[in-house]
């Protein structure tokens, strides 16, 4: 398949290892990946903070950039983020509709219909759960709120992880509880956010896992920031990074900022 | 409704509790406006987060009831269909509310009741006070009711020299302590049993002097106290869980039976009901009487369901008044995006699953309606600028459990947009800084070329990172780094890496 990658703005700027891993993984599975250069952001931050007018140009840019998928230029759009996929699917058309742009709202709906979060793309569209990965580490998985409740990805990420050779998946207590990130909530209600984070960090540490994984670098940035501050030694890694790891090109858990090499 | 969730552990049964210095039993006092009081949400939340006892009480109570709810909801095979039915019924009610209200009025009147219409809190309080005065009563007993909390009825009656006695155990505790409820269903969730014992000893004249904090003893002391009130009261005041338009029937569901006492013993019953509590037909109760107890107390059925239709000679109150309360509801109804907040049946399932509520408790919301539903209902009822729409991570747990499927996260986003519009011309520095930041981000994020350059900016932070993380940033970055490290930004953005790779091909 010919798959367009929406890297997400946060991963593009802060956590490039995740979209790079998506490229590695999909190419290894025999697919062609393209990166439409016009893309920037899905608009979720603006929408969720209430700045709908400011969201309009951001959303329009996203829709314009990925519109070719509706005409068959690409077979699908993949997003390594549950919340960005959720915003594309459930918010973009609403924003454009309210802005008095019904044609673009329809285009947004058409793009959204071809847009998939990574685990959805792999399991539902490509029909694979064993992607041939090797990652000999003890891992726990945090189901991010929007993957879980907005998209309903269910156990797809866990099925992918269980199929990884060498990986020991350990259950996370109170897994479905929010980590307290919530985008600008982390700044507007910093104390409440920190209290939620402390509880999430405690449950992660209790698992004895070496790596915490999730399908969203935004949540991972938050929990990872808490894990690092607490000196826990637990490393945050995106699901894609684990699935990209093989015996031939292993990905080693390390600090995300330390520019660890991603298997090519 | 009220329920027993198990009393949080206390240190020791006897002697004053360690932190109970004289006077500290008093709650936060009764505010002027029950829909808007106290500090801002972030400030009130900070104070609450620092209260270890409160955190433990809330953590235990909410996790207990979450588990109970999950288990009894899990055993209903058609739960999702029930939710759909509840949602559809409420949507229908809102679509023809004027017509249904008039039907209700007709049927209540035909069965010997008297219907009063109240535009706002002041009018409702005036009507009720007038009715009580006409009976020459100086004390009334009350059934637990959110509507009367919302309008500050007890305080209004007190000004008229009428004492209103709360008979729901938890509401009684809240009232004795001069406090505010902190949960829709379990209003004294912020109190533990030692505190309750101390409140009874200090504020309930007929409490046994050797009262301990054993739950049964506390309940028996309250029972004896309330029995005397039930037997002497001439007038009772209640809210309503449901009103059936078709038959004029009112319904109250509860756990203790104290509501039943109020609804049957006094000569006069006055019910204050928000106009949204209506359901079209008696059969529709079938849906809600399944949804409500499982969602709220985590029970298959609540112990007491009381229904009455007008008056029945020789049986129960001989005089029945129904006060239909608007108090901002028609304004909410007029708003297409927010009106489904009126579907709420006050089960409080959203509070119990909310990760924010679980940590900060109800008082931080500064409204008698706390938690996720309060965050969408309160600002809509008052129409004022509010920080409540931001008191959520939009995690969606509330929507998932709501028995009438109110899409709370989406309404929160709508209300945030309204806040931004209200702040449009605000001179407030924070509002202006947010606006400027969002505008700048919008410009940078609306074009691939501009974002390519913008995405390289974080790289500058590498200068202050150590061992791959940044531990400290100046304000507003400090809001982040106070509690979390920030990962060191990469040397190369994703798209620069991609461009390099494409060039190399």
From TrEMBL, chain A:
Domain Cysteine-rich: 7-88, 139-223
Gene Ontology, cellular component aspect: cytosol
InterPro entries: Cys_rich_dom
GO molecular function, one term: oxidoreductase activity
Family annotation (Pfam families): CCG
Segments traversing the membrane: none
Superkingdom of origin organism: Bacteria
UniProt name for this protein: Glycolate oxidase
Organism of origin: Promicromonospora soli
TrEMBL record, chain B:
Annotated 4Fe-4S ferredoxin-type domain residues: 341-406
Spans annotated as Disordered: 1-34
The UniProt record lists the keyword Cytoplasm: no
Alphabetized UniProt keyword annotations: 4Fe-4S, Electron transport, Iron, Iron-sulfur, Metal-binding, Repeat, Transport
Residues that span the membrane, as ranges: none
All copies of domain LUD, residue ranges: 102-311
A GO term for molecular function: 4 iron, 4 sulfur cluster binding
Lactate utilization protein B C-terminal domain: residues covered: 426-502
Database matches in InterPro entries: 4Fe4S_Fe-S-bd, FTHF_cligase-like_sf, Helical_ferredxn, LUD_dom, LutB/LldF, LutB_C, NagB/RpiA_transferase-like
Gene Ontology BP terms: lactate metabolic process
Record PANTHER family: LACTATE UTILIZATION PROTEIN B
Protein name, as recorded: Iron-sulfur cluster-binding protein
């Amino acid at each position: 398949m010919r798959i367009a990658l929406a890297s997400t703005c946060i991963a593009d700027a802060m956590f490039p290892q995740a979209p790079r891993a998506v490229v590695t993984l999909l190419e290894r599975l025999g697919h062609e990946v393209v990166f439409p250069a016009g893309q920037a952001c899905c608009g979720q931050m603006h929408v969720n903070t209430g700045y709908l007018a400011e969201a309009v140009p951001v959303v329009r840019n996203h829709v314009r950039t990925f519109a070719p998928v509706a005409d068959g230029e690409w077979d699908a759009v993949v997003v390594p983020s549950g919340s960005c996929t959720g915003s594309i699917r459930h918010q973009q058309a609403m924003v454009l509709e309210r802005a008095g742009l019904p044609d673009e709202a329809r285009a947004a709906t058409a793009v959204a219909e071809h847009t998939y979060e990574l685990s959805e793309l792999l399991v539902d569209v490509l029909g694979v759960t064993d992607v041939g990965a090797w990652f000999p580490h003890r891992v726990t998985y945090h189901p991010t709120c929007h993957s879980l409740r907005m998209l309903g990805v269910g156990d797809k990420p866990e099925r992918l992880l269980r199929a990884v050779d060498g990986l020991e998946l350990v259950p996370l207590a109170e897994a479905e509880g929010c980590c307290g990130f919530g985008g600008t909530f982390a700044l507007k209600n910093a104390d409440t956010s920190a209290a939620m984070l402390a509880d999430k960090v405690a449950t992660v540490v209790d698992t004895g896992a070496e790596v915490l994984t999730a399908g969203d670098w935004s949540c991972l940035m938050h929990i990872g920031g808490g894990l690092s501050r607490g000196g826990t030694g637990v490393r945050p890694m995106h699901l894609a990074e684990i699935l990209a790891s093989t015996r031939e090109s292993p990905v080693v858990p390390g600090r995300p900022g330390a520019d660890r090499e991603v298997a090519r | 409704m009220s329920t027993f969730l198990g009393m949080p552990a206390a240190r020791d049964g006897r002697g004053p509790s360690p932190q109970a210095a004289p006077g500290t039993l008093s709650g936060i006092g009764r505010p002027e406006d029950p829909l808007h009081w106290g500090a801002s949400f972030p400030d009130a939340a900070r104070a609450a987060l620092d209260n270890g006892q409160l955190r433990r009480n809330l953590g235990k109570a909410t996790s207990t009831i979450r588990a109970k709810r999950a288990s009894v909801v899990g055993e209903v095979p058609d739960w999702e269909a029930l939710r759909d039915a509840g949602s559809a019924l409420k949507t229908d009610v809102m679509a023809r509310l004027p017509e249904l209200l008039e039907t209700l009025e007709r049927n209540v009147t035909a069965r010997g009741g008297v219907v009063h219409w109240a535009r706002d809190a002041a009018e409702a309080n005036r009507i009720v006070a007038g009715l009580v005065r006409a009976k020459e009563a100086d004390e009334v007993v009350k059934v637990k009711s959110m509507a009367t909390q919302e309008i500050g009825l007890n305080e209004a009656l007190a000004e008229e020299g009428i004492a209103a006695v709360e008979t729901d155990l938890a509401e009684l505790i809240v009232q004795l302590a001069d406090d505010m409820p902190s949960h829709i269903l379990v209003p004294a969730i912020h109190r533990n049993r030692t505190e309750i014992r101390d409140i009874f000893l200090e504020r309930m004249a007929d409490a046994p002097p050797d009262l301990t904090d054993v739950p049964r003893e506390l309940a028996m002391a309250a029972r004896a106290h309330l029995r005397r009130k039930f037997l002497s009261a001439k007038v009772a005041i209640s809210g309503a869980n449901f009103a059936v338009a078709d038959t004029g029937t009112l319904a109250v569901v509860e756990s203790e039976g104290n509501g039943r006492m109020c609804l049957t013993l006094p000569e006069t019953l006055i019910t204050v009901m928000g106009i949204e509590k209506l359901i079209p037909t008696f059969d529709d109760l079938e849906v809600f009487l399944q949804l409500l107890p499982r969602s709220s107390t985590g029970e298959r059925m609540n112990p007491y369901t009381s229904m009455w239709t007008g008056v029945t000679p020789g049986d129960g109150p001989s005089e029945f008044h129904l006060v239909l309360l608007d108090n901002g509801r028609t304004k909410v109804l007029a708003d297409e995006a927010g009106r489904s907040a009126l579907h709420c049946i006050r089960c409080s399932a959203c509070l119990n699953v909310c990760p924010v509520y679980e940590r900060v408790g109800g008082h931080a919301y500064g409204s008698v309606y706390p938690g996720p539903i309060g965050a969408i209902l309160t600002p809509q009822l008052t129409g004022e600028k509010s920080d409540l729409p931001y008191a959520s991570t939009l995690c969606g747990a509330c929507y998932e459990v709501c028995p009438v499927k109110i899409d709370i996260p989406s309404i929160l986003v709508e209300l945030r947009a309204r806040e931004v519009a209200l702040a449009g011309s605000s001179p407030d520095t924070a509002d202006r800084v947010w606006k400027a930041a969002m505008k700048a981000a919008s410009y940078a994020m609306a074009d691939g070329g501009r974002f390519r350059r913008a995405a390289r900016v974080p790289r500058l932070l590498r200068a202050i990172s150590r061992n791959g993380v940044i531990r400290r940033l100046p304000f507003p970055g400090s809001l982040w780094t106070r509690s979390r490290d920030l990962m060191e930004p990469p040397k190369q953005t994703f798209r620069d890496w991609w461009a390099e790779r494409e060039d190399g091909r």
